[in-house]
Amino acid sequence: MRSVYGTFGGYFDSAYSRKIKAPLRYTAQTLGAVRDLDVFQAKTWRYIDAELGGNPTSLKPLLRGIARRQEVARLALVEWFDSRKYTRFVERFHAVLSQPHALPVASIDGNGPRSTRVDHVLPTLLYERWEAVRRYEDFIATASVPTLHELRIEFKRLRYSLEFFEDVLGQSAGMLIRRVKEAQDHLGDMNDAQVAVSFLRVVGKALPKDERSGIRAYRDYRQAEMDTLVATFPQMWERFNAPKNREALGLAVAAI
Fold it and tell me: Which stretches of 165-212 are DSSP H helices?
């Protein structure tokens, strides 16, 4: 939802935008907290099944900690959804979308002509999103995890911009979206592993020393996963950055 607004928000009246930006951000953060814990729990059970023969004994303190945090995060989400502020946000957002007070399709003034036609503005939008990703090219081989996290966000913006307009783009758009999603998912798994390592480090320090071995082993497992994803990303980048994908973007835009 935030990505949608990030793409189209500039075409709405600024007075409406100010009323929805803060609650939209809070909604995304509150949903994200629940999502992150659910993903962490699911991947923890995947580790238990694959590496521990389905026996969770050594990770029971961790599983209890996840469950407690899930309860807190879900309560915060429910409270937000039940609040009057959220209701007002939904009403205002609906008003923006149903009566958006958008800029005129075409206008002209002392600064020259302006247009909001899709076939006029979309090519620039897509190439700007593409350029925002490709500007990382010279740093891929030595990029830090925080840098790769920022790149993941740019991949997400590019993917959603392509998906929003797939119906008016050329047939090559579908293949291009798959390539972008592939790179985004790779970096998403890396980000999940980094979050897990940080969380496990905190949980491990809070436990008695005789209960830390299982947490330590799992932390080392997720650290190795993260290191592998970082090390193999340059190959993933080459798949995305291939000339055929740049050609696919050109063909997709040419069809508008």
Answer: 172-206
